[in-house]
Amino acid sequence: MGKNQVSLEFDDELSIAEFRQRLTKHFPGLKKMPTFAIAVNEEYAEEGRLISPNDVVAIIPPVSGG
Amino acid sequence: MEDSINIKISADELILKDCYDFVQDDSCGGIAVFVGTVRNNTNDKNVYKLEFSAYEPMAVKEMTKIAMEALESFEIEKIAMHHAVGDLKIGAIPVIIAVASAHRDAAFKACQFAIDTLKKTVPIWKKEFFEDGEIWVNAHP
């Protein structure tokens, strides 16, 4: 995406899976990654988890530390 | 358990002795240490430096989880996990894992578990720099 932070507005409560779909629609470049995880409040989030107001959501591309 | 775990993400050079001194314990008969070093090639291409970035607060949490799991799963007394961020030249040290235990088998196993799991779960990313370009490792199919 070339940015550290983006703002998107959603009217309804979204699950991680729904958020993932909308995000990919906004940023088709994400499809170039083999996969990516989503973290909420600094923890890996399951696809069914609902995102609440004030949650901190982060996109985690495939990691390569070490 | 806090006294048994030392986690650090640092923009400064990692110091092997810091990890060693943290885990050294009179009740332990051995210390296993893994030191990652920057390699000058990947898939037959010359690499001249690596750049590491981290989602730091989450990386610290994930490293702490690994350390806690290692303490629960293996008969070890102490564990230190340090990771560097920023530009690293060939031969520099991106990661150090040190584990102390009463008997060596647990230290070897826990050390391998910790580095293998770190590579899978901790949100840290490595960019390789070649003469003709750069690439985020694992980010492309």
Q: Can you tell me about this structure?
A:
The complex is a heterodimer of chains A (66) and B (141). Chain A is built from one helix and three strands. Chain A is of the alpha+beta class and 66 residues long. Chain A has a domain at 34-66: Beta-grasp domain (Ubiquitin-like (UB roll), Roll), CATH 3.10.20. Chain A has a three-stranded antiparallel sheet with strand order 2-1-3, with no helix packed on it. The longest helix of chain A is centred in the first third of the chain and has 11 residues, at 16-26. Chain A is globular, with a radius of gyration of 12 Å. Chain B is α+β, with helices and mostly antiparallel strands. Chain B has three helices and ten strands. Chain B has a four-stranded mixed sheet with strand order 1-6-8-2, with helices on both faces. In chain B, helix 2 (56-73) packs antiparallel against helix 3 (104-121). The longest helix of chain B is centred in the middle third of the chain and has 18 residues, at 56-73. The N and C termini of chain B lie far apart (39 Å). The model of chain B has no long low-confidence stretch (mean pLDDT 96). The chains are: A alpha+beta (66), B alpha+beta (141).
